[in-house]
Every structure is written in C-alpha cells, then in structure tokens.
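Form 12-C: Joint structure prediction
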Amino acid sequence: MSQPLNIRNVDDGTVARLAEQATAEGVSLSEWVRQLLDRAATLLSPGELAAKRTTLAATAQPPDEFAAYYEARLHRRPYQKPKAG
Amino acid sequence: MRPQVAVADLGALLRWSGQVGGAAPQCDAVVCPDALVAEVLEYLRVLHDGRLGPMLADLANVELSVDRFYDTSSMAATVAELATLTPSDLDVALCTPVALAAKLELPLVTTSPELAVMAAAHVPQVVLLRR
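Section 2 - Result
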C-alpha cells in the first residue's frame, strides 16, 4: 500500500539541493524524496531518542568507566573491565 | 551554535544512543563512518562479556539512532593522511570520524580530548563532551 503525500511551502533552496542529490543518485526527485522518507521512518525521532536516553539512563555505563575503555582502545592497550558490584 | 548534523565519534555515538551516560551531543542528528560499527560491536562484546543477545539488542538501538553511516573506503586516503601526518599512535579505525567530519565539513562531537586535539586542525568545529 502507498499513498500520496503533498508537502507545501518547501524552501526553493531545499528543493534545488534535493534535485542535485537525486541527479547524483540517478533517480527522480520523487523517488529520492521517497527514499529519504523511507529511511527517516526507520529511525528514532529526536523526541523518541531523548525519551529512550531517559529510559536507559539507569542502566547506562558511567562516563568515567567508558572513558577508561575508550582511552585503552584508542591506544590499542589491553582493557580490564571492572568487576560488577 | 547548535549544529543540525554532526559527526559522532565512538564516545559521542554511545552517549547519543543512551548506551553511555553523561551529556549527549546537542544536535538534531548524527552521522558516522561505517567503520564505527565494528568498534561499537567490540565495545558491546566487552560490555556484555561476549553474550550475543544483549550485543545485538544494543547494536540495534545504536543503529536506530544514527541518521546515516558513510562508507569508510571512500575516505580512506583522508584517514591515511590523518594516521600518518598526526604525531600520535591513535587507532586508525577510531580516527575515521575525524576524516568524515573533514570530508563533509561538519562539526565533530567527541568524548576524547586526544581526538579533539587531532581534529582541531582538520574540521570546522570540534565539540568535546565532558564527563
């Protein structure tokens, strides 16, 4: 199933840039915008992402603990994960 | 000024997706080089002691939060320049976000002071997220 979606008042510069992208990808402007919308629909919106971060906050790794991992990884040094508890 | 789109390094990406606590990038969307996917997997492998189920669940969460993963091979030359011109021993794969930010002329968001220093000469804006 598919349905038409009309969008009014799109900035001229935005349309021109999307047309450039469509040309670079070898598809029509409509097809390119359809692909962009399809991809956007698979992602979390900023609001959804913020809500998810709030939900995950209780179980997120503490930043200091991650920083130790990251520094070791950046320098290709062995990393010893802290013991739980 | 709050950027609309920024390139995230590993630390910024994990904060953006909520896997790691602390301040998240202040932007509307993040993009990453696809080389970071392997780094995310390595991080999750260590975090979850190699348990596949939690790794895949967290990977899906991270992937859902990224606007676009860019092909690393298309910027391999820039990565090579950074890896050889910069007087550092930083892991090449973890430097790929710097190359992407340079190529796309986008801000880089990072949690690494070392990557921030490296990027300063190559990208238009570097945002270092504090602990």
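Section 3 - Comments
Chain B touches chain A at residues 10-11, 14-22, 24, 28-29, 39, 42-43, 46-47, 49, 61, 64-68, 89-91, 94, 111-112, 114-115, 131 (CB under 8 Å). The longest strand of chain B covers residues 29-33.
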